[in-house]
Amino acid sequence: MHRCGNAQGLPSKAPDERTEPCLVAFVGAGPGDPELITVKGRRRLGDADLVIYAGSLVPQDLLQMCKPGTTFMDSASMTLEETHDAIMNAVRRGLKVVRLHTGDPSLYGAVHEQMRLLDEAGVAYEVVPGVSAVFAAAAELRSQLTVPEVSQTLIVTRAAGKTPVPERESLERLAAHGATLAIYLSVHDIERVVRTLSAWYAAHTPVVVAYRVSWPDQILLRGTLDNIAEKVRHAGIRRHALILVGDVFQEVRPHVRSRLYDGSFAHGYRDARS
Length: 274
Description:
Elements: E1 24-28, H1 39-47, E2 50-53, H2 60-63, E3 71-74, H3 80-92, E4 97-101, H4 111-121, E5 125-128, H5 133-141, E6 154-158, H6 171-175, E7 180-184, H7 190-197, E8 206-211, E9 219-224, H8 228-235, E10 241-245
Parallel strand pairs: 1-4, 1-5, 2-3, 2-4, 6-7
Antiparallel strand pairs: 7-10, 8-9, 8-10
């Protein structure tokens, strides 16, 4: 059974076992490795008649998962209105559309405004989540983002730039928490990021700049707060990179363990052991 709905979570019709998939699906492509798309996302691609994708961010290998005769549109040069018109033209013809977004559609994309237009048009759609770069980077680094006694909070944010950030969410305010940080869309301004964080994090705090994580040309640039800006400049990284900050990224793992597998800790499935 599949429930087709809109951004308010309202089903387009009463769900039953015969409910068909929506004609429009927003699909998370993952960070780059074509094998990191979800099973559902791959299935939606295989069924699509039209795929609108971000050509500079979505690997071409993903398009090979589509059936013969599928129409492809690169959204890099398109406006919101143009992509919406293309979706609506296909829907009116009863065609299945996949709007393929890099990473996960919910994070630093433009899915909100597209869903709003579909809501206004009364067109039902679904969203298929994807693997975001922060999780792919943690996997490549063999790091855990939340380590007991080190950090139990992950803050996903970006530095203010062409797109403003609410003052209450400024990097200065978020840095005061001392939590693990995943900073998107900001590597071009690495010097300012470092200056801001240096007021709250020690100079030796580990920093990783993950460039095109999971792509064949990925770079995982390790450093510390006091030298990462120089390393980024030397590597010539200006875009397509994520900044990860925090003690959880130490190359020598801290000698800590969770309570979950501690024999002295009892929970609903295990008694405490001496």
